[in-house]
UniProtKB/TrEMBL annotation:
InterPro entries, sorted: Ubox_domain, WD-SAM-U-box, Znf_RING/FYVE/PHD
Domain U-box: 1-73
Record-linked SMART domains: Ubox
Gene3D superfamilies from the UniProt entry: Zinc/RING finger domain, C3HC4 (zinc finger)
Organism ancestry: Eukaryota, Haptista, Haptophyta, Prymnesiophyceae, Isochrysidales
Superkingdom assignment: Eukaryota
Biological source species: Emiliania huxleyi
PROSITE patterns given in the database record: U_BOX
UniProt-recorded name of the protein: U-box domain-containing protein
GO molecular function: ubiquitin-protein transferase activity
GO process terms (BP): protein ubiquitination
């Protein structure tokens, strides 16, 4: 079972391309892009997002890859 931080709150699946949104939460890039195409709120809090910029979460991506390798996923 992967750590909860590795799971996208939108897809509930292990992330492969995690990005951080303005709300400070990480999401799978494709899932949050679909979300932001029709909404301007945080999927986690429901609060308005001040911007739609998505920053790659390289640290989380590395941690997920290391976990996958260690668990032979």
């Amino acid at each position: 079972e992967p750590p909860a931080d590795f799971i996208c709150p939108i897809t509930t699946e292990l992330m492969s391309d995690p990005v951080m949104a303005a709300d400070g939460h990480s999401y799978e890039r494709s899932a949050i892009e679909r979300w932001l195409a029709t909404k301007s709120t945080s999927p986690m809090t429901g609060e308005a997002l001040v911007q739609s910029f998505l920053a790659p979460n390289h640290t989380l991506r590395r941690q997920i890859r290391e976990w996958e390798e260690a668990n032979a996923c």
